[in-house]
């Protein structure tokens, strides 16, 4: 079955047959007999009675097949001047031994382990070791502040936390251990132990009894084998931003995840065992989970673990160097990374020094690929540039140009066609499918294919409320867009209060909760406004309480510091504007979508429910004074 249409149609007409055939590529301990079933909540679940272990698929299986000497990880760290190649054999040894450490600390199948780690090999080892035990990991992005970590620790309730003494950001060392200690002071849940990788750049103080030195512990540990789990047992929880301050714990199954990623590696990315894949992301995000760690390793590829940035480590040619040095076949990064490179090296002169002959494709995702960046990247690299769309919840691409199946002509602004398994539908407000070319909410018809979330950790009700209830029979993606007459999908952006800053998904709702807690603030809205480099950046609009005469500058400084303290530097919240009033409906709801459109320079309509249209003129004026060019309403 070679063509896209053949595979897509089969995936829609006979999903069980289609996915059963994909599952047959994996080394199950017990082959699933029942491909698609309903769980006790009536949710579709894949491969429930199959038995497997994801770490086994990623490591033991390849070593068992005689590929132990193949490189599993190329670790490249310009920030520490370190590089090494780790073979599958070595990675298996390290992982089995670290699983022994965790096991000695009481971690068993079904337990949770939180990881708060920089981009070092031990982070990958820890993820795989947790999976090896049938336990559940939850990786927290290292750029998040203690409060965010504490919230996740309280939700995931880990038996053990694994961390490192520090992370390294371009030219500064960020001691992680004090951040972890602060998080543990804030959290109600108390893990039994913390295992800490001591890095030479900054030693951490370990708390006797509770904290354990990684390297000392592994010396004494015995390797342990893989624990069999069911296809529907959870492999990991990954928290992602929703519309409130409470992040959503996306829960991913072992079975469907392995099947989907193995399929994606071949069909979407055209990867074969032994080839080199580089997702220039972070293990704290879904891209890191799926395509730094699990996808490439399950597929028997080599993955690049890069501890650096696209620029400043040391310059804008870093990506090209890494691609050349490891003969990377697929480079996958967020558009913001290429905007950063383009800004520093517009003519891509740095590329000329490197042999990019092994590089077959450049994939981008994580945020909208703007046409200027697309054209620049295509012209400079002379490689196919593939925009593909997906999200933490789906875990793997929803729309793509499937390079391993059948390359279709690209259309700038489109992430091409739905990947087999996904039924992408554009719905109007009443939940009715719209005509081609018409914009609406992007929904995915149920059942979702393997690999997508089946619930939210310990909060099934929120899963159903947030994703399934709006349009019965569909999963709501939170993105808006349209499908053209050729079936190409165009993503136009979020229709909720989630924003995307430098490829990092953040909740404006969460920022609003922090701004609103400032004693001088009567009410506020935080919106995402366009940013040339980062795609979007947050802007706070603040109404002061009566009688408060704080200056805008001092108030902004307070809010900026608070958001940095509570969420982290990664929020990139640098600006707040004091306004007289915020536009609201007559029932008192702030018209955030209108504010967003106005600040983004998009055409907007004044809703008939607006309470006081006059306040829009004031806002326009205030935005103009800030250098933001707002739009006027369209008639
Ligand atoms: N640990 C600690 N701090 C971190 C961090 C981490 N893992 N990641 C980012 N930060 C900090 C940065 O040091 C910076 O702090 P500062 O305000 O004190 O300077 C802040 O968070 C903002 O970081 P960032 O948004 O990354 O901005 P930048 O100016 O350092 O770099 C880019 C800009 C575009 C080069 C960078 O954002 C980038 O490479 N983005 C790609 C993101 C990506 O891969 N996303 C994954 C989705 S596919
Ligand atoms: P995350 O869950 O962090 O991966 O973020 C997912 C969100 O990023 C999606 O819901 C989209 O809003 C956005 N996104 C991801 N990929 C793309 C893309 N190719 N084009 C436009 N937006 C994207």
TrEMBL record:
InterPro entries, sorted: ACAS_N (IPR032387), AMP-bd_C (IPR025110), AMP-bd_C_sf (IPR045851), AMP-binding_CS (IPR020845), AMP-dep_synth/lig_dom (IPR000873), ANL_N_sf (IPR042099)
Pfam families tied to this protein: ACAS_N, AMP-binding, AMP-binding_C
All copies of domain AMP-dependent synthetase/ligase, residue ranges: 64-445
Residue ranges constituting the Acetyl-coenzyme A synthetase N-terminal domain according to the UniProt record: 4-57
NCBIfam families according to UniProt: PRK00174.1
Family to which the UniProt record says this protein belongs: Belongs to the ATP-dependent AMP-binding enzyme family.
Record protein name field: Propionyl-CoA synthetase
Native species: Saccharospirillum mangrovi
